Amino acid sequence: MGAYGRLLAWMAGQGIDLDTEAPAVRITRDRLRSYVAFLEANGCAPMTVASYLGVLCMAVKAMFPDIDWTWLVTAQKRLQVRAVPSRAKHETLVPADQLVAFALELIAAAGMKLDNGADDGPPSRARVAAARDFRDGLIIGLLALRAPREANLLGIEIGQQLQWQGGRPLLRFPGSETKNHRALLSSWPAELVPALDRYLQQVRTILLAAPVRPDPRRAPCPPGQRLWLAQGGTPLTPGGLAKLLKRHIPARFGIRLSTHRFRDCSATTIAGGDAGQVAAASGLLGHQSPHATSRYIAASSAQAAEHHQTLIASLRKEARREQRMAAAKTARTAAKTMPPGASNKSIPLTRRRS
């Protein structure tokens, strides 16, 4: 009802006496034109305006089903067709290899803080914060490498969706839990296995024991076997997931990423402009229709996950190689500019291959 209420607030601001009109006849073509002009004049992006009208269409069709709203639906579709995103999509994405590198850094930093404390007694505030950061890094890494949908990510239970086969952890989502009703199976990312082991053995226990102020408005929710826990042991919620992404991603990359945006990041990284790689992207995201992944050809989710992990590893290896080359070039330049007789023991020159 937000879109309808927003429209009524604008009408009231225009001096329209809403009490003298029947609710079903308040929306007219002329008022809609003025309302759209008002939204655009106040900085609403074209996609936002089209979205507002789309929700408005659904609201009035539900409230007043006996009225023909074809003209309103047509107007909304025309706005939708003409709408151009205010920012190019590539400007709102982060390469998946950079997200993985950040996740591993977050896990390593939090792990070092946890190494300095003891697990005896109630955890301190600093220890709980480190455990939370460790969990956050593990979630960000999993989002970048496996791109699960939010509901599937938060619904992972130990022994159910998270299983072990031959000593290796894997993720298994039955068709009843996926959007397109297709079962998904993928291995847990190899580079995140040590972090998962520590999370299950230590970090999750700290979050379970962490003190939390009870909220009388909410009934207590036991953790059960949920993998992802909030402070105090309650299952992590969509709101909590959004907060953790907001806490870390903008500070590092300067943009916000939702869980769905991670899927875009992973698909874009896999494709990389190469039409031969789009099949892996479709399989990783669990899309049934090729059009759902921008005409990608479907592949199995397990194969796609392995392909994505291999691609990320190669990208990170290439980045490290470029860093070493840049450091070696800087060292050679510094050696050439040193005064005669100066010591060069502290300058790590690379050996040239013959």
Task: Tell me what you see in this structure.
- This protein is 55% helix and 4% strand.
- The protein is mainly alpha-helical and 354 residues long.
- The chain folds into two domains: 2-82, no CATH class; 91-213 and 222-306, hpI Integrase, Chain A, CATH 1.10.443.
- The chain has a three-stranded antiparallel β-sheet with strand order 1-2-3.
- β1 (162-165) and β2 (168-173) form a beta hairpin.
- α3 packs antiparallel against α4 (70-82) and α10 (259-271) runs antiparallel to α11 (278-285).
Characterize this entry briefly.
The protein has 354 residues and is mostly helical. It is 55% helix and 4% strand.
Task: Give the secondary structure arrangement, pairings included.
Layout: H1 2-13, H2 29-41, H3 46-63, H4 70-82, H5 96-115, H6 125-146, H7 150-154, E1 162-165, E2 168-173, E3 184-187, H8 193-209, H9 238-253, H10 259-271, H11 278-285, H12 301-336
Helix pairs in contact: 3-4, 5-6, 5-12, 6-8, 6-10, 10-11, 11-12
